[in-house]
Amino acid sequence: MNAQTQAPTTSRPPAATGAPRMTEALVSAITAETGIATFRTKSPRRIEGTVQADALHSFAAALRSRVGFEHLSAISCVDWIAEGEFELVYHFWSYRDSHLVSARVRIPREPGSMATITDLWLPASFFERDIHEFYGVVFQGNTDLERYILSDWKGPPPMRKDFSSRDFAHEHFTFKDYEPTWDELIDGGYHGQKRQGEGSDE
Amino acid sequence: MAEKELTQRTAWDKVLANLRKRSLWMLHYCTGCGAVELPPTMTSRFDMERFGIMPMVTPRQADILLITGYLSVKTLKRVILIYEQMVAPKYVVGFGSCTINGGMYWNSYTTIKALDRYLPVEMYLAGCMPRPEAIISGFNSLIDKIGKGEANSWKDYYENYEFYKKNQDHVFGDIETHHDVPADGRYFGILEAKR
Ligand code: SF4
After folding, report:
1. Which residue from A6, A193, B31, B88 has the fewest beta carbons nearer than 10 Å?
2. From CA A56, how far away is CA B109, in angstroms rounded?
3. B86 DSSP 8-state letter
4. Is the peptide bond before B120 cis (omega within 30 degrees of 0)?
């Protein structure tokens, strides 16, 4: 494939080819090229650090083009409800070095808002949609935050820590008409306490 | 045909039921983990085909709809679409405790808790997951039921369609299946023919 037919985002950055580098060399390359000095070796072939929310986009762009981490493996989200924050974890992979870089970003829970990186990695849209529907984080600039897995969902984002799956299930679904006692063995029994006056889909 | 007594079995009904019970084609909807017990049931070790039960790839030619485990709201919608495409008489078999009461997903926000609220279930196979012996024995009792003309829960879908539709609408908002269920009911002589 020649250079004209390739979209800019699919061409391999020069830093992504060459001999594999050692972990220490990668950590110093990340610090030098992105200007963010929080990255440390976490375990063999894993590097981890924190990035400010507004710096993540430029960090990811530099990590891709100048350090050579050309693959976005995943974006995950953690709800730190006591601190009122979401933590987004971006995982980047380098085929050249077989190393994983995890960048942790904290954003306030209300409003959960973050800049998209779909302009750098189009497949990031899947992760962003996923996090949007499960945590309610809005990715600014992502034009496709449609429902993805929960296509018929009308409740609140279900992976938030303040969402009670059990309460929702008991409000929303009707169980069989019998009184199970096995759940008392688990945590004191839900049915025994809540049985009266529920079952709205009858 | 319309004025025929439905409760009374004619000799022809008995012949038909005996033929029908030995030739059951099964559409197995394998969303749940219990589906892993089906390959041994179908293949040479347990060989369900000796009872005349054979896997079928399309709902339009299937008699049994086997729901092998948990159904999320999203998959339930597909199951209803599949069920309505099947030609009666049809038998829904709930397979595994998830279809009975939610099983180990009893507190999940997205799986339904009792399949019989959304589709007329002919028979449940309990277990998490039911072993091939249990499946074979369950199917044997289904065969007996069909032979005796007692496997009639599919008629309930026409008779009590409002109940099923209400529960379906409750989880989906409003579901449009593009299938005229009451017309089917009239065709089978279950609902009174209205013009
Ligand atoms: S009943 Fe058990 S084996 Fe079957 S789908 Fe549910 S959890 Fe899986």
Report:
1. A193
2. 33
3. S
4. no
Token output for A125? 């849209």
* Residue B106 dihedral angles phi and psi, to the nearest 5°: -60, -25
Would you say A132 and A78 are in contact if contact means Cβ atoms under 8 Å apart? no
Q: With CB atoms and an 8 Å threshold, state whether B109 touches A172.
A: yes
Nearest chain B residue to A200 by CA: give it: B170
ipTM: 0.79
For residue B26, how many other CB atoms are within 10 A of its CB?
20
Q: What is the CATH number of domain A23-146?
A: 3.30.460.80
CB distance B130 to ligand 1 below 6 Å: no
Residues 6+ apart with CB under 8 A from A47: A23, A26, A27, A30, A39, A40, A41, A99, A100, A101, A102
Report how far residue B166's alpha carbon sits from residue B85's, in angstroms, rounded to the nearest whole number.
20
Compute the distance between CA of residue B61 and CA of residue B132 in angstroms, rounded to an integer.
24
pTM, 2 dp: 0.80
What are the structural domains, with CATH classification, of chain B? 22-187 (3.40.50.12280)
One-character DSSP codes across A115-128: E--TTT-TTHHHHH
Q: Show me where the domains of chain A are located.
A: 23-146
Whether the pLDDT of residue A7 is over 60: the answer is no
Between β-strands A71-80 and A113-115, what pairing exists: parallel, antiparallel or unpaired?
unpaired
- From CA B106, how far away is CA A173, in angstroms rounded? 10
Please check the confidence at residue A6 and state whether its pLDDT lies above 50: no
Contact A175/B100, CB-based, under 8 Å?
no
Cβ(A72)–Cβ(A90) below 8 Å: yes
